[in-house]
């Protein structure tokens, strides 16, 4: 899986990049047909926003999460994506 990481009003440090990469490996364990992930980390006043669009076989999955802490926002984003990936995988099994 190729991960494109973009920061708006935030500097992407090595620690943030490693954290995002380690969290996205969790998604690959559930569904290995993820081809591309575009992750945007954004800061608006006191809210840290993480959003991602995944290109998967059979469609796209999008989610976003907000929190006061960027790492917590990334955790929330991964949880949402994980639920959507599992739901997408179940849909593919039914077809």
Automatic annotation (TrEMBL):
Q: Does the keyword RNA-binding apply?
A: no
Superkingdom of the organism of origin? Bacteria
Q: Where are the transmembrane segments?
A: none
SUPFAM superfamilies according to UniProt: Ribosome binding protein Y (YfiA homologue)
What are the entry keywords? Translation regulation
Xref: Pfam families: Ribosomal_S30AE
Supply the PANTHER family for this chain.
Answer: 30S RIBOSOMAL PROTEIN
**Subunit structure, per the record?**
Associates exclusively with 100S ribosomes, which are dimers of 70S ribosomes.
Question: Which family does the record assign?
Answer: Belongs to the HPF/YfiA ribosome-associated protein family. Short HPF subfamily.
Protein name per the record: Ribosome hibernation promoting factor
Gene name of this polypeptide = hpf
